[in-house]
Amino acid sequence: MRYHPLSNADRDEMRRAISVADIAELFADMPGGVVQDLDLPRGKSEIEVERHLAKLASKNLAASQAPFFVGAGAYRHHVPASVDHLIQRSEFLTSYTPYQPEISQGTLQYLFEFQTQVATLTGMEIANASMYDGSTGCAEAMLMAHRITKRRKALLSGGLHPQYAEVARTVARLAGDDIAALAPDVTAAEDLIAHIDDSLSCVIVQTPDFFGNLRDLRAVADACHHHGALLIAVFTEAVSLGLLTSPGAMGADIVVGEGQSIGNALNFGGPYVGLFATRHEFLRQMPGRLCGETVDAEGRRGYVLTLSTREQHIRRDKATSNICTNSGLCALAFSIHMTLLGGTGLSRLARVNHANAVALKDMLAQVEGVEVLNKSFFNEFTVRVKCDAAALVERLAARGVLAGVPVSRLLPGAGLDDLLLLASTELNTDDDRATLVAELKGAL
Amino acid sequence: MLDQPKTMEAPATFTGNRGLELEEPLLFDIGRDDATGVDIEEPAPFASCLGGLERAARVALPGLSEPETLRHYVRLSRKNYSIDGGIYPLGSCTMKHNPRLNEKIARLGGFADIHPLQPQSTVQGALEVMEQLTHWLLTLTNMEALALSPKAGAHGESCGLMAIKSAIAARGESATRKTVLVPQSAHGTNPASAALLGFELRAIPAGADGIVHAEAVEPLLCPDVAAIMLTNPNTCGLFERDIAKIAKMVRDAGGYFYCDGANFNAIAGVARPGDFGVDAMHINLHKTFSTPHGGGGPGAGPVVLSARLAPFAPAPLLIREDGGLRLKEDVEGTRGFGRITAFHGQMGMFTRSLAYMLAHGADGLAQASRDAVLSANYVRVKLRDMMTAPFGDRPCMHEVLFDDAWLAGSGVTTLDFAKAMIDEGFHPMTIYFPLVAHGAMLIEPTESESKASLDLFIATLRNLGERALHGDAAAFHAAPLHAPRRRLDETLAARKPVLRRTQGAA
């Protein structure tokens, strides 16, 4: 086997060295004995493996092959070629968690830079070294709010991504906590403040919300703070931070979101990278890894993982979270792309995204049977169509157009079968929009 | 021949660099506000729809041009140790070779450039990858069902325990079954995961031989026991030989058996956890199935479930129907416990691990396990006369555990020994874990090392050991001398946390 360096002669010699006549002796304790004849094929050459998997890949309709307007929590952006090259450097790709900092300064320094970038973007004081993704980060933020406020009830906005809400509900139910969720809020009309009282640990609000609406969080933040609750601001489109007032500037206590948009491919849903930022005062209740600055024995600046007394390997059942890893390589991709963009480039990229979405909105406004519902949006908005949106999307997919996400896919049975979410990024062209509009006209 | 005294110190350089060893400033010290490595044209003027929420101030982050970006990150990368660069013998971490074919496969447009919410009719190939991965994992473990979506091992633990909690609730025993049994040698994630779900913990005392004995578990099996969490092979590198007996006892007492699958690399293709009576086990694809650790993630931790727990599997559920494959994205109409992440799990890791499995085949996977176990025992036997094993001289599985008894009186600690290894060009083994061994040194060579590599590793440890035992403590205390940094002040980092670059800082 090409991945195994030991030859049979090596194995024989090593077996003799350890005085074992047959390697099976080392597996003698297995209940049921050593298994034989598993219903699995024998090993394949590199050519055969590639052929097998390339065939499966070819059965999928890649975003690059179609006018593509799919978003709802994952967004297709251009990733500069140097990002993917750099993250495949052996020293980044094949290193472990930086437990030996003297020979892990590369990883530690980029994590420190990443933390700085995330804190700056979100308008917060500190950020951690990343979470698995936005949805799990959101649930961790809720648990963190419970620890800080010593209350165990969260309020979810109806604009929160339905799967984020479902993750939070699952965790809350099984951890024995309370949760209150407002109904799906297509036009950001809900009165969150009316639901805030002294029983809440936190209010979780997304902006841009699931339906694409932009939300001013300032009044909600004030109401939360008046009642001793924390405001958790969620985003699923990190590029929006380049153009919009940051959640931190609007009074959020914890900002958590999906960082996939910057540096990371769609990957059918993972791996992604959760961004997590908060105020300094909540540092010790924060989940996840943290990288901190220090000095070495010669006084030179260096970096280490720090405050691990919050973490499971030290605190075990008293830890702030069971999390044992971050999303290191995806955080690196985020950080490299962010470095390439710079603040100026990110804002410009965000404006292009918004401009393309506005152009699409203007074109759809001319299509009979399509009604744009949003008053405000960044690069994604909701339309009402005169038919079942899921069936419409299927019809267009069959014609090679990926027209967006029917709301009913994520909110089945909510009576929202005629709603469609459409996202636009810098990758959408005039031709894409023209094709979409023509196909919609034909299908409606 | 130059006649230089060995002790001569290299003079300081003007730059602080030393040949190929280059200092690299923070991005924030070299970047500029207006610099960018991405050419984006400003859009033509248009009427925005931002509802008055446009950012007032620019994002205060510097940029770099593309060549400067390459240089920054390439220089940073050179301050890292890596598997590609040398043996990475971290016990419990399975730092094996990461085949580059897998990277290539994961980046095929048909896998990397598909959206989790595009119509399922357009991603049948991706669903087939999931189906095939499921078949491999269920066959290798002899289990009933797979929860694909957990993002990492600890997330898998949460998933498995959530299924257990739901099964207990379905039996109407939520109020009474609230305890999880965990041995002292367990990974810290085990008690943390259980505590997160409101379980109470009861410790299982370790046997003098490093394994959990059925007799030690029996008195703990009160009617309040929801589950037992065991790692097998355990974190001491030993196979829990009472495992089937313990599983049966736990099951008879009405509890469930969660197996931490972190050490599956010792037995994949050789033994099946389902045959031990396991109810749930996460599989670290980033360990056993070689997806890159990436400096700390992303991982992937799908969970195999027994027939007793299969009905409680979370969304999404993969279903084969007449028209092809379908992902059921909610648990409506099932007893599934809900959802633990948005979308469908770590697809990028599924493609990589399926490529790994196809390349190995059943025969290759078994060979990998045999080689991993053989290599660990080879290291054990070659070091056992010098180092001390906490549980006596006995065969191990894929990792070998030593303690620090052999260093007593030398003035050298486990940490010093590890740091001295760095100067010799090695990444240290796992140290101070598991907690049941004093000054633990846990070595996992994996199947990826040649005999020559193992021999040099062994010879180096022997040489260091002799130096430690012959009064060279001061040199050990000073180590490492040759790494990009000397020892770092972790106390300072924790006492005065500096977690980001603040504006204007020097």
Give the SSE map.
The complex is a heterodimer of chains A (444) and B (506).
Chain A: H1 8-17, H2 46-58, H3 81-87, H4 90-93, H5 105-122, E1 126-127, H6 134-149, E2 153-156, H7 162-175, E3 178-181, E4 202-206, H8 218-226, E5 230-235, E6 254-258, E7 274-278, E8 291-295, E9 301-305, H9 312-315, H10 328-364, E10 370-372, E11 380-385, H11 389-398, E12 405-406, H12 407-410, E13 419-423, H13 430-443
Chain B: H1 27-30, H2 66-77, H3 100-106, H4 109-112, H5 124-141, E1 145-147, H6 153-170, E2 179-183, H7 189-196, E3 200-204, H8 214-217, E4 225-231, H9 243-252, E5 256-260, E6 280-282, E7 303-305, E8 317-321, E9 324-328, H10 347-383, E10 400-402, H11 414-423, E11 430-431, E12 441-443, H12 451-469, H13 473-478, H14 490-495
Parallel strand pairs in B: 2-3, 2-4, 4-5, 5-6
Antiparallel strand pairs in B: 1-7, 6-7, 8-9, 10-12, 11-12
Notes on the protein architecture:
The complex is a heterodimer of chains A (444) and B (506). Chain A is built from 13 helices and 13 strands. Chain A is α/β, with parallel strands linked by helices and 444 residues long. In chain A, strands 1-7-6-5-4-2-3 form a 7-stranded mixed β-sheet, with helices on both faces. Chain A has a 4-stranded antiparallel β-sheet with strand order 10-11-13-12. The N and C termini of chain A lie far apart (56 Å). The model of chain A has no long low-confidence stretch (mean pLDDT 96). Chain B is α/β, with parallel strands linked by helices. Chain B has 2 domains: 256 residues, Aspartate Aminotransferase, domain 2 (3-Layer(aba) Sandwich), CATH 3.40.640.10; 123 residues, Aspartate Aminotransferase, domain 1 (Alpha-Beta Complex). Chain B is 32% helix and 10% strand. Chain B contains 14 helices and 12 strands. In chain B, strand 4, helix 9 and strand 5 form a beta-alpha-beta unit. In chain B, helix 3 packs antiparallel against helix 10 and helix 6 packs across helix 7. The two termini of chain B are 45 Å apart. Classes of the chains: A alpha/beta (444), B alpha/beta (506). At the A-B interface, helix 1, helix 2, helix 3, helix 4 and helix 5 of A face helix 2, helix 3, helix 4, helix 5 and helix 6 of B.
